[in-house]
Amino acid sequence: MALLEINPDLPEDWLVARAANTLRRGGVAVIPTDTVYGMACCISQQDAIRKIYELKKMDRKKPLAILVGDIRSAGQYAKGLSTPVFRMMKRVLPGPYTFIFEASGEVPKIMLRKRRTIGIRVPDNPIALALLAMVDEPLLTTSIRNPEDAFVNDPVEIDKVYGHRVDMVVDGGHLLDVPSTVVDFSSGNAELLREGKGDVEALEIFD
């Protein structure tokens, strides 16, 4: 599988369409986000979800993150999204944050098992947002890591490892190996689980 190189600043529609068609047909693709590269599939494709778990050798108890194109879509998959939290998300998104909520009934059961929470992202990346708009449904994603558990953000290196096992590797340029900031709202209170690329102070929810 050759790399599909897409302009990271001004994604070419016809190239985005190729990637979107791959995902819509149930394929698995590696795509760039505003933080790290992720292995992604459409939320409606059960076989593709299983394939991601198998490729990453992930425990089924570990959920994938949901990428959505706008804040309104987040409410479809998250329960307990209060007005103050919604306003905060509207202020900082798209951006390098993952917000964890109790999962709604719209989240595929294959992802939940004994867990009932889900991480939601609105990535500030032109390629990812263009893909989300074109597939017209959320994408599920998990980061690409090497055997030492470090993020791999060189698409050429990713292609060497996963190019023959996934349906497409989208080359959106070399990314920094800084993950998203993760905040858990599933208990009703805000809990900072990981401080990453997203500015915690910008959230204005922690003292």
Topology:
Layout: E1 3-5, H1 13-24, E2 29-31, E3 38-42, H2 46-56, E4 65-67, H3 71-77, E5 78-79, H4 83-92, E6 97-103, H5 109-112, E7 117-121, H6 126-135, E8 139-143, H7 155-162, E9 168-171, E10 181-184, E11 191-194
Parallel strand pairs: 1-9, 2-9, 4-7, 6-10
Antiparallel strand pairs: 2-3, 3-8, 4-8, 5-6, 6-7, 10-11
Key traits:
11-stranded mixed β-sheet, 30% helix, 207 residues, globular, single chain, alpha/beta, DHBP synthase
Explain this structure.
The chain has one domain (3-203): Alpha-Beta Complex (DHBP synthase), CATH 3.90.870. Strands 1, 2, 3, 4, 5, 6, 7, 8, 9, 10 and 11 form an eleven-stranded mixed sheet that branches. It has seven helices and eleven strands. It has 207 residues and is an alpha/beta fold.
The CATH architecture can be given as Alpha-Beta Complex
Largest sheet: 11 strands, mixed
One letter per element, helices H and strands E, the order comes to EHEEHEHEHEHEHEHEEE
Average per-residue pLDDT, rounded, comes to: 91
Unreliable runs, pLDDT <50, ≥5 residues?
none
**Shape by Cα distribution:** globular
By CATH reckoning, the class would read: Alpha Beta
How large is the share of residues in beta strands?
Answer: 15-25%
**Helical run tally:** 7
CATH fold-level assignment = DHBP synthase
Radius of gyration: 16 Å
How does the helix and strand content classify structurally?
alpha/beta
How far apart the termini lie comes to 48 Å
Number of β-strand runs: 11
Tell me the CATH superfamily: DHBP synthase
Estimate the helix proportion, in percent. Answer: 25-40%
List the domain count as a whole number.
1
